[in-house]
Records
---
Amino acid sequence: MIARTLDTGPWHAAVYGAGILLGDMFWFTLAVTGLSAIATQLSAFWVAAKIIGALYLGWMAFKAFWSAWTGARPKPVFKAGSKRGWIATFVAGIAMPLSNPKPIVFYLTLVPAFVPLEAITPLSYLLMLAIMIAMAVPTAGFYIGLAHRARNWMSTPQVRRGADILTGCVMTGIAILLILR
């Protein structure tokens, strides 16, 4: 969401965050409905998703390092403000938790360990979703607000170059961890 804020502004970041929240709600629903057992049967799919995710992170790291080296800024995929741009931002937000192993592991292993699944009623399920939303919206708003305030500072060439190098290092590290785990 921070990257979306810096690149396209707070509204795109909010749309991206809404997609992330929807993806998290998917995993939560899968966990509380007892479908985590089915999800564990898809282990080959998760291995493939990890490899694809690591390759994608490696590509993003390369692009960040390339940007730091050349100063070239990536061109937007969609014209700013276009309907396709908003939809693509939302879909990218949904794809983030669906392809990221951390929320998968959290929702499908830890939630059933701490929440007695047999005690969940439709009302308690809706209450838990409401709590998720109530916690996610102000947290995301805080991060988006800070990133929006930092947009001008982050656009200076020296800061942007340092941010690109840091981003490339972080993406490389995450890709390596993803493969090793």
---
Amino acid sequence: MGDWISIVLLIGVGLILIYLELIFVPGTTVLGVVGLILSGIGIYIAYEKHGATTGSMVLAGTALVSIIALVYSFRQKSWSRFSLKTENKSKFNEGYSLGLTIEMRGTAISDLKPIGKAEFGDKTYEVASHGEHIGAGSEVKISKIAGNKIIVDLITN
């Protein structure tokens, strides 16, 4: 009787670990490998203690239980509880450089080393120089706008 309890426990815990890995930790990880090893040990004990016929029936039963559990879980849509259902359609900094034009003049609010802040009109933007240091309070002009990246030059008078 003790052999059957250990066989059922090993196979049951092994299958539970395999399903936990499928649901919570996709990919081949320690959880699935341990589950496979435990199930294999349970099947091996069935072959060793109860012969080839009983071992084959335990192996077939384990495979059948696994297939039934997978088919049932797909039909009941139990996997959908763990899937992402929303879609993020927002955009980051959309329209950030709207209203800016090349040759537009402004003032560096912080040091540009080569990235810093500059004010154009009444709005503050993150800008970059061409690699040179531009001190805070310096007058700058926009030389290039590429998407949300604003490149400025120092205005020297």
